[in-house]
Each structure stands twice: as C-alpha cells, then as structure tokens.
Write a structure and sequence with these properties.
The protein contains ten helices and no strands. It is mainly α. The radius of gyration is 18 Å and the shape is globular. Keywords: Cell membrane, Membrane, Transmembrane, Transmembrane helix, Transport.
C-alpha cells in the first residue's frame, strides 16, 4: 500500500514542478536520441530540497523507464532491431545491474569515476576523429560470436549502470557502434531495449523500499514519454550523422560532469 504522502513532496511549488517537467521532457528527448538523459533529469530532482537522494534516484528511474519503453516501441516499429541480439543483451544487462549495485554498496563510486572519465574521453576522441564511424552497419562478428560479444557488452554496461549510472545509454550506443559494428540508428534502437531492462532492475529494488515518489514520478513520466517519442522520431528522420553529433555533445557533458565529481571528491581534498 502506497502512503498518500508519497504522491507529491510536501511544499513543492508549482514553479518547481514545472521546471522538473521541462527537464523530464528534455531528458526524454536526449535519451531517445543517444542516451544520457539522466544528466538532465536526475540533477534537477536532486536540487529539490524536499527529496532525499534515494527518492530522487528512484523517482528518476520511474520516469525514465516510461520514456525508454516509449522510445523502444517507436524504434522497433520503424527500425526493426534484431531482437535475437537485443533481448539476451537486455536480460544480461539486468543481471549486471544487480551485480553493480552490490559492488556499489561495498566500494565507493569515487574509486571508479576517474577511470570512467578517461574511458569516455578516449571514446569521444575516437568518434570525433573517425567521421564515418557508425555511418553504416558493418557487423564485425557473425553467428554465436556476434551474440556472445553483444552479451558481454550487455552485462558489462549493466554492471556499470548498477554501480555508477551516468551515461549508460551513451555507452550502450557507442559500444554497439564501435565494437559490434552497427550504425548509430540501429545501435540506438537496441540500446533503448537494454536500457529499459536496467531501469526495470533498479525499480525492482526501489519500489519495495517505498523510495519512489509516485505522483511526482508519474508527472515526470508523462513529460519523459513525450520527449522520448519526439526524440526517437527525430533521430530516425535525421539519420546517423545527427545522432553522432548529439553523441559527441552528450559525451562532452558527461566528461565535464564526472570530471567535476572527481575534482570535488578526490583532487580538491588532497590539495587542502
């Protein structure tokens, strides 16, 4: 039974709610195009003083799973991604997210952030200097090897999502492009299905604890769904070149955000 006071945080203003809805719409659009919408939606929720961090995380996942479901269906209808690759990858990503969450309870995420920043910077440079990367599908593996590699990527990035989280969708897209050989549109279509699974895994942990603020989450879910639908339609219409540009922009934002976290959590205390 969900308590009535869980539907909306006490004292939240109409202006704050409106800003959160706008953030959720923008997050849905970015996430549908290339992933990384959590960079917009989650920080906005964390700025609401009425919400505890765990409530912000849980409510973010509720809105996000509605958006990823919408973009998954939209991509499936128009791109027809190969479910023989996407579904096993999604299942293993869900398991990986549970394992990552378990590790996060033992080791501080600050240990991993410098590695993630360097890896993301290397990936962004790699994409920037290879303009034809992801322009067309050219699979590097066949048969069982193809599915094995996709499964490894699913469990590895699912582990990252459970342990740390920011930019999971972007990592899924670029791994499917650079390692497996899909174009950006095909990679985005599969990434949405996998990202839906990782969000589902997180909600399976959050809902029983009562951490989800349902009223706020459902308001943001409506905006996220609208942004996801528009974003997936835009990506399909504009093509792989457009998705590549958005990927580089999101990667730059991720590098700045995680780099700042590393500075505040690790470097700055050492300089005091």
């Amino acid at each position: 039974m969900i308590p009535l006071d869980a539907w909306l945080p006490d004292g939240i203003s109409v202006e704050t709610l409106a800003l959160l809805v706008v953030a959720a719409f923008a997050a849905g659009w970015v996430d549908a195009v290339v992933g990384g919408g959590g960079l917009i939606q989650l920080p906005a929720l964390l700025l609401v003083p009425q919400l505890a961090p765990v409530q912000a995380l849980a409510t973010n996942k509720l809105a996000s799973i509605c958006g990823t479901a919408t973009s998954s269906v939209t991509y499936y209808r128009r791109v027809k991604p190969d479910l023989r690759t996407a579904l096993p990858m999604a299942g293993l990503a869900l398991l990986g997210s549970f394992a990552g969450a378990a590790v996060a309870t033992v080791l501080p995420t600050a240990v991993f952030k410098p590695i993630i920043v360097l890896a993301l910077a290397a990936v962004a440079i790699f994409v920037a200097v290879r303009p034809r990367l992801g322009a067309a599908t050219s699979l590097r593996f066949e048969g069982r090897r193809h599915h094995f590699v996709a499964a490894l990527l699913g469990i590895g990035i699912g582990f990252y999502d459970g342990m740390l989280g920011p930019g999971t969708g972007a990592f899924l897209v670029i791994s499917l492009v650079s390692v497996v050989g899909y174009n950006f549109i095909a990679a985005s279509a599969k990434a949405k299905i996998v990202n839906f699974a990782t969000n589902l895994g997180a909600l399976a942990l959050f809902v029983p604890t009562g951490a989800v603020v349902w009223g706020l989450g459902l308001c943001l879910a409506v905006a996220n769904v609208a942004g996801s639908y528009l974003g997936s339609r835009t990506a399909i219409a504009k093509g792989t070149g457009f998705v590549r540009v958005i990927f580089l922009c999101v990667s730059a934002a991720l590098i700045l955000k995680l780099g700042w976290d590393v500075w505040v959590e690790t470097v700055a205390p050492m300089l005091r």
